[in-house]
Write a structure and sequence with these properties.
- The structure is a single chain.
- The protein is an alpha/beta fold.
- Helix content is 43%, strand content 11%.
- The chain has nine helices and six strands.
- A six-stranded parallel beta sheet has the order 3-2-1-4-5-6, with helices on both faces.
- Helix 6 links the parallel strand 2 and strand 3.
- Helix 1 packs across helix 4 and helix 3 packs across helix 4.
- It starts with a strand and ends in a 7-residue tail after the last helix.
- The model has no long low-confidence stretch (mean pLDDT 97).
- Bound molecules: xylulose-1,5-bisphosphate and magnesium ion (MG).
Length: 237
């Protein structure tokens, strides 16, 4: 079947964002008087859980078990996460996080060939906007026929919810789409929605289990190889 849409994960796929997320979490902890510090080794483990609020709760329940939770813990986590988003979007606005190699060219090639683009991510909408405003320009929203992100679905990746939400918006079947992901959670989410999935790895995910992926790449610097592997009818680059 011809491919009608490409659905992109954001964090780790469109850009190497996870270390900036980690730094933003640490800034939020410091700003709120917490002595928590997530180093790279710990963050690696915390990435098991997607979603920033969910990740903070996972840290408290599994890694900082002596911490005495405040009474309104949910509100506290929400506030911490808002502080984190403020720091993260400031890093994006400062142009600290470029798109990964080949991403913009792939999007431009696909658009020129009338292949629809969409986003399926667990990250917050502000973060998607901040990244793509810098990476694609002010009219970044016009690139995407569906922008699935954050809390719009009940269950985050590895659940298929966000991909199902996007398929619904696009009015396409899973067989008419491919997904691009960078992590085991993301791959499982897309596969559970029945979508053929390709993976680009990054420093946080290169060791993940990518069983079920249709192709695994270090990055998309060789777009011709990606077009050949996927069967996308796009020009040699
Ligand atoms: C990304 C995530 C996100 C980010 C943090 O996963 O899990 O939670 O790490 O963003 P994926 P928020 O790439 O699979 O979508 O703090 O805004 O949740
Ligand atoms: Mg990702």
């Amino acid at each position: 079947m011809t491919i009608k849409a490409i659905i992109f994960d954001v964090d780790g796929t469109l850009a190497d964002t996870e270390d900036a997320h980690r730094i933003a979490f640490n800034k939020a902890f410091a700003e709120n008087g917490l002595d928590w510090n997530w180093d790279v080794a710990l963050y690696d483990k915390l990435l098991k859980v997607t979603g920033g609020k969910e990740r903070i709760k996972y840290y408290v329940s599994d890694f900082n078990t002596t911490y005495k939770k405040p009474e309104n813990f949910d509100d506290f986590v929400k506030h911490l996460h808002q502080t984190k988003t403020k720091h993260y979007t400031a890093m994006l606005a400062a142009g600290q996080i470029p798109l990964r190699p080949g991403i913009k060219q792939l999007m431009d090639d696909a658009r020129a060939a009338d292949i629809v683009l969409a986003i399926a991510t667990t990250t917050s909408p502000e973060n998607v906007a901040g990244l793509l405003e810098v990476g694609l320009g002010k009219d970044w929203e016009s690139y995407f026929a569906a922008n699935g992100c954050g809390d719009i679905v009940p269950h985050k990746k590895p659940a298929p919810d966000i991909y199902n939400w996007v398929l619904d918006k696009l009015k396409l079947s899973p067989q008419e789409c491919i997904a691009l992901e960078d992590s085991n959670n993301g791959l499982r989410s897309a596969l559970a929605a029945g979508i053929k999935t390709y993976v680009t790895t990054n420093p946080y995910t290169h060791w993940h289990d990518f069983d079920g992926a249709s192709g695994i790449f270090d990055d998309l610097s060789d777009l011709s190889a990606f077009y050949k592997a996927t069967g996308l009818p796009l020009p040699n680059r």
